[in-house]
């Protein structure tokens, strides 16, 4: 009987791809870790226990067939592993890079609970699909015969791109409208290259363009066309804009030059990586070089900002967060990476005011303590009066999260219903908004969330839109028969 290639966790320890030294990786925007070589990937995949209830899959929003493609990897059947991985995810190599595996698949791995250390699922997932691209296994999209119906998608982020791919494969004409000059949304302009190198996103976008999906880049809905005009052009619409309105800080001096929004800062940096001319960066307004930087916030966007500032040559980088390390929303792995690279975390602290009139010069802050749990179950931070302190700052970056823009006003569509949070109100069975044939998915429905959830929503909404369009076509055909 052949030896079982799995269950090696009892003899093989957990291992991630080696990270480059912190001093070296702080010099560039390349990804910080190399991918596994084949024997190492097979070895780590073989640690999977092939448990009866795969909690890794259960806790993955896409319900990827993780134990199955781990086994195929362990057996050296990489092409089959890729095909199985690709069956449930439109962007497996992107999820392998940026998903918070410590909170999802790896954090719920059975052998993690037994003290052996989780299978390094994300790194294996990245390895499988990167290999597939190199070997030419990533096949072009082959659409079914033309259905004679078209779909318009507003937003070229992960939800919009996923829906575009799946609907094009079904034979629909697909048009994607996006305000940016490159598709990808936050994958392109929000996430730094050290987490997701841009060629990884661009090759996905090119695959969609090669399949005949029409991208209208630099297209601002509301300015270039109202939503009603787009509805007239297409048989169904999808709104997948994401949420881009930065949350504000209410404090004296917050309007001073040098107090900036995280997305403006990250977009400028990412544009420079593409070789774009960015005057605000070149003139110093969105550049950390030589400056004392204070980033306010504790999520993944804050981590992206502090680590970008290090790479831009900041004199010092501090992250100010009102809760402690255990209660921060961002990935603990990202905090560790940031600390290795020279970021200082100022826990249990919140800004009270910003010094400087011509330009920001410092942040006046106060220490916080954690009180009783709030409505979300997290202990609410409370100011510790008498503990005020000041941080020098030449540039302050606000990274407190994002809310929805006023889409009814922006799109010129007053009858587009929203929730009290400004997100689009949908029927969760059909994923339709208050407007017939207008669907919505991703962060614009659920609020700021993970890329993997946007992909899941894009997958789900494509299925609902396909059903709607088939019904619409059948009803039109029936009317024609009656009229004849």
UniProtKB/TrEMBL annotation:
Gene3D superfamilies (alphabetical): Alpha-helical ferredoxin (1.10.1060.10), FAD/NAD(P)-binding domain (3.50.50.60), NAD(P)-binding Rossmann-like Domain (3.40.50.720)
Location of the FAD/NAD(P)-binding domain: 151-458
Keyword annotations: 4Fe-4S, Iron, Iron-sulfur, Metal-binding, NADP, Oxidoreductase
Record bears the keyword Iron-sulfur: yes
Molecular function as annotated in GO: 4 iron, 4 sulfur cluster binding; metal ion binding; oxidoreductase activity
Pfam family, one: Fer4_20
Cofactor: [4Fe-4S] cluster
Domain of life where this protein originates: Bacteria
Residue stretches making up the Dihydroprymidine dehydrogenase domain: 25-136
NCBIfam families attached to this UniProt entry: gltD_gamma_fam
This protein's name: Dihydropyrimidine dehydrogenase subunit A
């Amino acid at each position: 009987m052949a030896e079982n290639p799995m269950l090696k966790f009892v003899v093989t320890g957990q291992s991630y791809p080696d990270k480059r030294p912190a001093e070296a990786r702080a010099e560039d925007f390349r990804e910080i870790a190399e991918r596994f070589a084949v024997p190492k990937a097979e070895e780590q995949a073989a640690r999977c226990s092939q448990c009866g209830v795969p909690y890794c899959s259960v806790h993955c929003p896409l319900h990827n067939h993780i134990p199955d493609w781990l086994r195929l990897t362990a057996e050296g059947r990489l092409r089959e592993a890729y095909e199985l991985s690709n069956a449930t995810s439109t962007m497996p190599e992107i999820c392998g890079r940026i998903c918070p595996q410590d909170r999802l698949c790896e954090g719920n791995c059975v052998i993690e609970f037994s003290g052996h250390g989780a299978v390094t699922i994300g790194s294996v997932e990245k390895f499988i699909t990167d290999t597939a691209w190199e070997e030419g296994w990533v096949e072009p999209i082959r659409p079914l015969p033309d259905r004679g119906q078209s779909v318009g998608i507003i937003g070229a982020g992960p939800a919009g791109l996923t829906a575009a791919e799946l609907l094009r494969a079904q034979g629909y004409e697909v048009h994607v409208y996006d305000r940016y000059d490159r598709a990808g949304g936050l994958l392109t302009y929000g996430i730094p290259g050290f987490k997701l190198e841009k060629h990884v996103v661009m090759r996905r976008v090119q695959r969609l363009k090669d399949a005949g999906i029409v991208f209208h880049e630099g297209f601002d809905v509301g300015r270039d066309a109202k939503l009603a005009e787009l509805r007239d052009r297409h048989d169904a619409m999808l709104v997948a804009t994401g949420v881009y309105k930065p949350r504000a800080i209410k404090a004296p001096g917050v309007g001073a030059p040098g107090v900036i929004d995280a997305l403006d800062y990250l977009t400028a940096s990412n544009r420079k990586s593409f070789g774009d001319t960015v005057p605000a960066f070149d003139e110093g307004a969105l550049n950390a070089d030589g400056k004392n930087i204070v980033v306010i916030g504790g999520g993944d966007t804050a981590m992206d900002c502090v680590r970008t500032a290090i790479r831009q040559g900041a004199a010092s980088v501090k992250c100010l967060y009102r809760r402690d390390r255990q209660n921060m929303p961002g990935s603990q792995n990202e905090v560790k990476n940031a600390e290795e690279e020279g970021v200082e975390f100022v826990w249990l602290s919140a800004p009270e005011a910003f010094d400087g009139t011509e330009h920001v010069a410092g942040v006046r802050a106060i220490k916080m303590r954690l009180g009783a749990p709030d409505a979300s179950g997290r202990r609410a931070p409370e100011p510790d009066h008498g503990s005020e302190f000041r941080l020098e700052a030449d540039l302050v970056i606000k990274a407190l999260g994002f809310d929805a823009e006023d889409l009814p006003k922006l799109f010129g569509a007053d009858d587009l219903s929203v929730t009290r949070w400004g997100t689009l109100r949908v029927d969760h069975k059909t994923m339709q908004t208050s407007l017939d044939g207008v669907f919505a998915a991703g962060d614009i429905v659920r609020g700021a969330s993970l890329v993997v959830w946007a992909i899941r929503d894009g997958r789900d909404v494509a299925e609902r839109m396909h059903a709607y369009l088939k019904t619409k076509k059948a009803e039109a055909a029936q009317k024609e028969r009656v009229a004849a």
